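Final paragraph of the annual report: two paired records, presented back to back.
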Amino acid sequence: MLILIAGPYRSGTSDNPELMKENLRILESAALPLFRKGHIPMIGEWVALPLIALAGSKMPGDKLWEEIQYPVAHGLLEKCDAVLRLPGESKGADNDVSIATARGLKIYYSIEEIPVQTR
């Protein structure tokens, strides 16, 4: 399965780049365990952040950032089979879960819930 890892990225950081980097590290920490269970992990920021930089965004939440950040995640949800929702307050991740639920995707709340898939 292609599994979107959703959780806090910008939330609770006051746009502090170091805190946002730490949140991304936490999201990424779930990627290898998912891969080892036979799945392909995806994080919206892996796609959005390079595009945001190329667009010339100056800060989180500016017009260019908003144009790209959430639409990328929503587009990825059209391709994903499931969502892994990591702990922590996040309007964006909660919105991802709502969209995924409406599309009938499976929502997991821990890596342990996700079945092993043979390749």
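The closing record of the year follows.
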Amino acid sequence: MKTSQTGLNLICSFEGYREKAYQCPSGIWTIGYGTTKYPNGAKVKPGDTCTKRQAAEWNAHDLIRFEANVAKYDGIYRHNQNEFDALVSFAYNVGSIDGLTSKNGKQGARSKAEIAQAMPNYNKGRDANNQLIVLSGLVRRREAERALYIMPVGSNHLADKNPYAMPSATIRLQSVSKDIKWLQWELNFLGYPLVVDGKWGQKTQAALLIFQKNHRLSVDGLAGPKTKKALLGDENLKGQPEHL
């Protein structure tokens, strides 16, 4: 099993692209889409830079390792695509899912329900004083991964489960709350994590622009007919995402 587009969106949405090496909250030097070690085994170091193409290549190489970590438990869990994607994202951030599956010191002993329940606990990092603290970014990431993990596999979208009706008009800053909530729900499902609050903030605007760019749509920040069709999985409108 390979990571799907939803899983890739989820990972890259949280990792973000960084041209220059930086230290993550745990103090590890990181670059590109969350890469900490290059394909040749060398660690990322201060002063390193990369292009988006290099970052995408390193991301693909990193995924092999984390997909293998999740796949080794397939005999126990028989993961569906959503579960697999969520766990690969988790491993990409934490390092592996070994601890997540462990119960009483035995790997692979937790049930799927117990794994879903445990996911939100992995939300801490170290501050400048080396003290463990809850990080809001990790709280949001764990929430998104858990939501995907427990989401039933169906079509490319869950419009039938979206509690908000798709608006007929273009969705924009001035739109009513329920229309913005529909947009936020669909973007969130596709791996662009948002709080579905009906408020057109910077995060909603940024997620829509990234989605449009990834899908080779007009990057105008307006959810018109073509953008809404792409959100609902119209394969004729979907282009190759930029980070692949």
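Strands lie at 18-23, 29-32, 124-126, 132-134. This concludes the annual technical report; the extension proposal builds directly on these records.
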